[in-house]
Amino acid sequence: MRTTITSTSDPAVVEVRLSDAPVKYEYTGDVIADVNRIGNWVRGLELLGSGDQFSLQQALAAFAPKPSAASVRRPQSELTVTYDKEADAGFLYLPYASAASVEHEMQSNPLLLKCSHSIEDEKAVYAMTGDKSLVSIRFAVPSDHQLDTFLRLFGNEVLSSEKK
Q: For a designed S-S bond to 127, which of 11, 20, 23, 138 qualifies (C-beta 3.0 to 4.6 A apart)?
């Protein structure tokens, strides 16, 4: 399945869907999204270990996570997952709508993919299959971030919005 990103505007919530598998469990967890100075979400989503609720390592296993970010192409054109066992943290490097256009934009704005600050949602929802593999993640975007600007780099190829 192709990674899809959907959003709602009131409240501002983003869902990253990684699989069409049916959801059997939902858990609350902690996620961090990096944002550039313009307000665009960059790279992807950091997933932090959730203690006793579920195993993040198990949740990401189906994506054949790499041990480090060294092999991640920038700007990325496909989903790449890393997992650090010592930190019990994973990272979903999400595909940009058009890696070529992002690369072109970087020539005029080299800071386009540079993180300026991060937003964190400690009450993000991890949706899982029966075997506790990750299906999707929903997280809140703070009200001081413009949702259209926040999602711009992921564009039309992977982005669909629902106004609610």
A: 23
**For 108-155, how does the pLDDT look when each residue is reduced to its tens digit (9 = 90+)?**
888 898 999 999 999 999 999 999 999 999 999 999 999 999 999 986
Cβ atoms of 23 and 135 within 8 Å: the answer is yes
Range of the domain at 43: 4-154
CA distances from 28 to 56, 89, 103 (A): 12, 15, 35
* Residue 5 DSSP class: E
Span 6-15, average pLDDT: 92
Radius of gyration from C-alpha coordinates of the chain: 15
Q: What is the dihedral of CA 45, 67, 79, 49, to 10 degrees?
A: -30
Note if the pTM is more than 0.85. yes
- The SS3 call for residue 54 is coil
How many domains does the chain contain in total? 1
110 close to 91: Cβ distance less than 8 angstroms: no
Tokens of 103: 């690369």
Q: Is residue 125 part of a domain?
A: yes
In a domain, 27, yes or no: yes
Q: How far apart are CA 102 and CA 106, in angstroms?
A: 6
